[in-house]
Amino acid sequence: MLAGATAIFLLVLVLLLLAFRRGGGPSGSEADARRERVWIQGLGLGFSLTVLAALTAYGLYVGERLLPRPGPDVVTVRAEGRQWAWSFGYADAPGRSTENILHIPAGRPVDVEITSADVIHSFWVPRLAGKLDAIPGHVNVLRIEADAPGDYAGVGAEFNGRDYTKHRFTVRAHDEAAWNAFLQEEMQ
């Protein structure tokens, strides 16, 4: 995305330099008018449409990876928001849950099934994915993936009462060995 924006910015700068370098007013000749149409239509529209198409294709490719689709490597976690905490249940460790700390494996896609016990909340981990609402009686699925082990801050980003600013949680991404140890610990 940055490359496309940079290319458009540089093209505009070059066109401005050419426009101010020539100076003077319109010459009025038909050849000049034809040349100006080529510049405007060829570069202005053609270049812009090419960059827009490339950015759209890239966005669709990246967005497709974020859609929750079944697969052999996908981990499923259930997140339930309530005033003022989150509880997380793990499909790979049935019957166990954690409060305000979501444990996930690093480098693997995780589908978070988001719901609410009371009012509408928003599940948001800015460094991992976009924001999705937790609605009572409804399950929304958000795919997240941490590239590296570590802690990622999560926020309940929906105004839903007096203490909504304290509605925070942590996503803890583990390497493969630590993830397996966490699962074994949870199953005991």
UniProtKB/TrEMBL annotation:
<dbReference type="InterPro" id="IPR002429">
    <property type="entry name" value="CcO_II-like_C"/>
</dbReference>
<dbReference type="GO" id="GO:0005507">
    <property type="term" value="F:copper ion binding"/>
</dbReference>
<keyword id="KW-1133">Transmembrane helix</keyword>
<comment type="similarity">
    <text>Belongs to the cytochrome c oxidase subunit 2 family.</text>
</comment>
<dbReference type="InterPro" id="IPR008972">
    <property type="entry name" value="Cupredoxin"/>
</dbReference>
<dbReference type="GO" id="GO:0004129">
    <property type="term" value="F:cytochrome-c oxidase activity"/>
</dbReference>
<dbReference type="Pfam" id="PF00116">
    <property type="entry name" value="COX2"/>
</dbReference>
<dbReference type="GO" id="GO:0042773">
    <property type="term" value="P:ATP synthesis coupled electron transport"/>
</dbReference>
<feature type="domain" description="Cytochrome oxidase subunit II copper A binding">
    <location>
        <begin position="72"/>
        <end position="185"/>
    </location>
</feature>
<keyword id="KW-0472">Membrane</keyword>
<feature type="transmembrane region" description="Helical">
    <location>
        <begin position="39"/>
        <end position="61"/>
    </location>
</feature>
<keyword id="KW-0812">Transmembrane</keyword>
<dbReference type="GO" id="GO:0016020">
    <property type="term" value="C:membrane"/>
</dbReference>
<dbReference type="InterPro" id="IPR045187">
    <property type="entry name" value="CcO_II"/>
</dbReference>
<protein>
    <submittedName>
        <fullName>Cytochrome aa3-600 menaquinol oxidase subunit 2</fullName>
    </submittedName>
</protein>
